[in-house]
Amino acid sequence: MFTDFAQALYQPLADDRSFAEFTRDLFLNITDYSKSEDNPIINAEDGTLTAYYNGKNGISRLAKKISSHLDTLKFETYLEKYPSGTPMLICEALLPFDPQINEYNCYERSATLFKDIIITAASQKRKSRKKDSGTSETSMVCVGDSDFRTRLLLESAGICANDNCNKPLSITKGDAYRQHFECVVIDDNLPKDSFENNIAFCPECAAKFRMATTTDEIERVKEIKKRLLHDAADKQMLSESQVTDGVKRVIQKISESLEEEPNVELSYDPVTVEQKLLSISKPLCTKVKSMVTEYYSIVHNTFLQMDKAKAIRFEPFTLQMKLNYIQLIEGGTEPIKIFDQLVGWLVTMTNEDRTVCEIVVSYFVQKCEVYDATTE
Ligand SMILES: [Zn+2]
Fold first, then answer.
1. Which residues have C-beta within 8 Å of that of residue 172, sequence separation ≥ 6?
2. How far is the CA of 181 from the centre of ligand 1 (A)?
3. Could you tell me if residue 371 is inside a domain?
């Protein structure tokens, strides 16, 4: 969508200009009108341009007017005028929209991307919100209904479901938590409000998927969704039986190992714990860090061994842990209490010693499955 494209490029190209000025500049530089013709951009009002920029208004009406006057070479020349470090910044900004972009082709690909956005917008039927209120109302279910969103978020375990994208679908900053994802309708020809036809993508993947969607892409995403639905069925089975038995055994095994000399093998970086927990609570951070430092290898090796021996499936257990974490966050549990809640869950499930359960949860904090790291 235009708004995603413009916002991505604002940082590298805008040079303190207002959103309206910047937006006008983008359009002026991809359109070519002869002297006798009026370029509709020149007289566009600032408010209108700002609304295009922030996505409040779609550009399809404008796109229809200018789509026969597009000039990608002009846009390339426009980009070439920026200082020498700019291509790198453009690449970074547009990579989510075009995985093949690099410093050498970025002028050309940016121009093509922009052109495609305009063409797509021009070919869109104007959404008349009133006329088909029947469908738009039902499709709004997925946007507004928090249960629906939560289900999708849980289904993808809080990570963008798109292939080769591992972005978390939430943002945390200190105690604050915010969902950061979109419900994407997979196939427009199927019911838009059905759970089976929706998938949770990060905003970039969502924007990219919606932009000039091909049948191949739809099929690919359908495959992803099929896998997710399949996994969910697996997970349910697992949470009922295997997890309980398996984890009980793992925790017994870990408590036995704790008697042995700790195996010092620093294949991890305790700094991550600090990054994640220091802003939440210093005592909690200190506790988790010391547990990770002492016992990470023991827990890790136990899981590996038992996974090999098929006593537990490590991957699903990890997912289960992550799901519980997400459910707590979703339910509004304060980050500082989540650690104890997860420990409590393990204790109830296994009836084992609380300290051992704390060690196991600490392991998952370190592994980034719990308390997803804020990237700064
Ligand atoms: Zn993504």
1. 178, 335, 371, 372, 374
2. 9
3. no
Q: Ligand 1 center to residue 217 CA distance, Å?
A: 14
Domain that holds residue 160: 133-233
Convert the pLDDT of each residue in 53-104 to its tens digit. 988 888 988 988 888 888 989 999 999 999 888 998 999 889 888 888 888 8
Q: Which of 233, 258, 276 is the last residue of a domain?
A: 233
H/E run at residue 224? helix 215-240
Global pTM? 0.38
Q: Is residue 376 a part of any domain in this protein? A: no
- Tokens standing for residue 341: 């809640």
Task: Centre a 10 Å sphere on the Cβ of residue 65 and count the other Cβ atoms it contains.
Answer: 14
Domain's final residue, options 123, 148, 166: 123
Structure-block tokens of residue 42: 């020149």
> What's the 153 CA to ligand 1 centre distance in angstroms?
13
User: 208 falls in which pLDDT band (50, 70, 90)?
Assistant: very high
CA of 93 to the centre of ligand 1 (A): 14
| Model confidence pLDDT, tens digit, residues 336-350 | 888 988 888 888 777
Note residues around ion ligand 1 (Cβ under 5 angstroms).
160, 162, 165, 167, 202, 205
Q: How far is the CA of 201 from the centre of ligand 1 (A)?
A: 5
Which is it for strands 182-185 and 176-179: parallel, antiparallel or unpaired? unpaired
Are 229 and 246 part of one and the same domain? no
- Provide the pLDDT confidence category of residue 146 given band limits of 50, 70 and 90: low
CA of 65 to the centre of ligand 1 (A): 32
